[in-house]
Write a structure and sequence with these properties.
Two copies of one chain form a homodimer. By secondary structure, chain A is an alpha/beta fold. Chain A has a domain at about 5-10 and about 65-110 and about 235-440: Rossmann fold (3-Layer(aba) Sandwich). Chain A contains 17 helices and 15 strands. Chain A has helices spanning about 50-60, 70-75, 85-90, 115-125, 140-150, 160-165, 170-175, 190-200, 205-220, 230-250, 265-285, 300, 345-350, 365-375, 385-400, 420-425, 440-445; strands spanning about 5, 15-20, 65, 80-85, 95-100, 130-135, 155-160, 180-185, 225, 260, 290-295, 305-310, 320-325, 355-360, 405-410. In chain A, helix 3 (about 85-90) crosses helix 14 (about 365-375) and helix 14 (about 365-375) crosses helix 15 (about 385-400). Chain A is globular, with a radius of gyration of 21 Å. At the A-B interface, helix 7, helix 14 and helix 16 of A face helix 7, helix 14 and helix 16 of B.
Chain lengths: ~450, ~450
């Protein structure tokens, strides 16, 4: 039997990130000013991000150098292992060959440090003293806390109050790495005070937390803001996942027919899939890349492609994206990282151009898949990661039904050690389907007054 | 700079476990019957353990074959990485070279599956349908649940009721792998019923949970019992850690002057240290091996070497061990895995013969060390693991003070993802020292009426 794990060494950590924009047949449309609705340039981002990240946000260069210092920190957990899922194949009795790339070996337990580390690095280089961000369940906040600690930058995390109270473990993890964590809304921003004045008992929302983090950065010269998904430079940093996976599949003497990843804002999917899409562009391969989203938040499979705000309040530039409407409130599923109304710009254009696919799974289906995986492979997956597993299982079952073998690769983006409550809810029958009706989606989209894309 | 991680491949997973008894100048004294106090043979263990494990318990062969099927399951996470702790060295500004072996990459997050997998394997081979065990905080119970799931054996875990109620995440982890978890004392054993009749509100203890698990195994033909530390066969299985580490240190072109591991019952320490002690025996090396225990449970540094029971109630054979007395109740420190009154037989004899050393650290010192490590290296360690870190830091600081470089290797036996409450208590100032007075120890030992060793 061939080895279960395909490993690379530290010298194999890629030296460049891959920028898919260079290869896209249709480039992303420009962002628009939230008020004037005119196209805006990179300078509009200056108050929030360091110049090097803004350059990465708009570059059309195919390759972007990874600084040595970033590669050295990556080496704490990278290259990550690629597994042949012998246990899962046996459990499914499928002729398919299943592989997964495991990003849960990072210190914070997900793929997020792949971008938090370079983001902190560029901020440090430009003399920034403090980075602010928002976090829901805490995956992104803890990844940024870890990165800021390494560069001795202050880190302020605005954590949705409901999660702050209900999920204290991620908060303590951030504290351990030296970050300050505020329940949002807080008294330290005007935005937070305003919300608290209107409703002192609010449990907060990601939209409010974004407003607080952005305000802190916009009003202080020594402070910038960081985002964990959606933006181009975030996706760029994550391509390290797929580049390693391409090398590992070559070592395995195999190449995927299908590449799968969970989909929230797109960084997880982009990270694994873009380097395989590059093979489609450069070598004329025909690798199917499938984004896997929750059926309770189905922007790719049931949303519209139009300009929309990145936040709930309407402060950010308008971005061309698949969206359910910026006022859409996703059901409170445990996969907090997938509860976002829109898809990043690059991924949206790729879907529009039919260069990638998307599927949705309901909440019960993904937990069933997660438990099947945990029993077959040992690792208990994060609720976000179970979506990719559900798609992989569906494709493997299709192989069995059709009597053909295909090679399937998915991104196991994080472990579920901080999510055991979710599994308890599943075992106790407290997980529900959260299917959206046509009426629900129509009502959310009907409210949109943002520019359409013709 | 040399690589941070020294990796092995699956074909490097050792093919044999190392049995240190073969090399010991003074062999362990025999166990005694709990009532007659006469030496007992292996047959006394038959109601509780499968024959192959009993053979391993008493063998004097230097090497024991690891079955291929066990090696294949090991390959889910083994070989584990060995890290050069560049970040910690820098943080301490020490001339010492520090390495750590990281066992937290296993599915249950500690070194425990190294023995739960072969234990489940041998039970399966001998037709056993069900394995019972006790667990405190849940590290051992979850490792056994993981292993039993792989071999399709039922797993029953008696979890101390206080932990069952206060630490539900480990319980859900066991459920995910299919184990049944009972709060102990339970209504399903005579032992449990008896305790509940006397005190319906008891929060349980490890001693009671052991009695329940043993009773279930002793009264059913298809059921055996499993133990996660102390016994010889458990230590034998763990030597896979140190064997890998020896090979990894050779790749690093280095060899430790000092090997350190946390100490509870001894399996963690034995796992890393015994293969280095073999180099002392076989090659005349002079590697110092240091067991690191909590000062609130200091059996090695302040206990006595005499016969004592393995459990609180006095049901097990009498074992020759360093002990604080089987009635000793350790303070409720977060490092639950180190709260045990005695030390395993082999380790006790080695300490008696001055072939190993022991040190103790107080509760505040270990958390300070744990946070220093998390900030310098990224990984947040389990409370048990912080004891080894504290010893490593103390030795590295000694190097700095003396102006010499030594090579230090310690066992990072598990991650702290399920222990964030402990860190919260530390940050909130709720961790206390729990130092034991001479009077405390004297009072506990004065109660002992077990045979002395002359």
């Amino acid at each position: 039997m061939k080895p279960r794990k395909i490993l690379l060494t530290e010298k194999d950590i890629p030296e460049k990130w891959y920028n898919i924009i260079a290869d896209m047949p249709n480039k992303p449309l420009p962002p628009l000013h939230p008020v004037t609705k005119e196209p805006i340039g990179p300078d509009a981002l200056e108050p929030l991000f360091p110049m090097e990240l803004i350059k990465q946000e708009v570059t059309t260069d195919k390759w972007v150098d990874i600084p040595d210092e970033v590669r050295h920190i990556y080496s704490l957990w990278r290259p990550t292992p690629l597994y042949r899922a012998y246990g899962l194949e046996k459990a499914l009795d499928t002729p398919a060959k299943i592989y997964y790339k495991y990003e849960g070996v990072s210190p914070s337990g997900s793929h997020k440090p792949n971008t938090s580390v370079p983001q902190a690095y560029y901020n440090k280089k430009e003399g920034i003293k403090r980075i602010t961000t928002e976090t829901g369940a805490g995956q992104w906040g803890s990844a940024l806390a870890f990165a800021c600690n390494h560069f001795n930058i202050e880190c302020e995390v605005f954590m949705v109050k409901l999660s702050y109270l209900q999920k204290p473990y991620r908060k303590i993890m951030m504290n351990t790495w030296g970050a300050k964590v505020f329940p949002s809304p807080s008294e330290i921003t005007q935005a937070g005070k305003k919300v608290l004045a209107e409703d002192p008992n609010t449990t907060g929302s990601l939209g409010i937390a974004i407003s607080e983090a952005v305000e802190r950065a916009a009003t202080r010269d020594d402070t910038k803001y960081a985002l964990g998904s959606v933006l181009n430079h975030v996706k760029l940093h994550q391509t390290i996942i797929g580049q390693e996976a391409v090398a590992q599949m070559e070592i395995a003497g195999d190449m995927p027919d299908i590449v799968i990843a969970p989909f929230g804002g797109g960084s997880n999917f982009a990270g694994l899939a873009f380097p395989f899409l590059r093979l489609n562009f450069d070598e004329g391969r025909n690798i199917r890349c499938i984004a896997s989203e929750p059926s309770s938040c189905p922007k790719l499979t049931r949303g519209v492609f139009r300009y929309d705000f990145g936040d709930t309040i309407g402060m950010t530039p308008l971005l061309p994206m698949y969206t359910l409407g910026h006022n859409f409130v996703p059901a409170p599923i445990h996969a907090g990282g997938l509860r976002y109304h829109g898809a990043g710009v690059i991924v949206s254009q790729l879907l529009k151009d039919k260069l990638i696919e998307a599927v949705a799974h309901d909440n019960i289906e993904v937990f069933k898949a997660g438990v099947t995986f945990a029993k077959a492979e040992g690792i208990i997956p994060a609720p976000e990661a179970t979506h990719g597993i559900a798609t992989a299982i569906a494709e493997a079952e299709k192989c069995k039904h059709e009597g053909v073998s295909r090679t399937i690769l998915f991104n196991l983006c994080g472990h579920g050690n901080f999510d055991m409550k979710a599994y308890d809810d599943y075992f106790s029958g407290n997980i529900v389907k959260h299917e959206l009706s046509e009426v629900d989606i129509h009502q959310s989209l009907a409210k949109l007054d943002t520019p359409e894309i013709l």
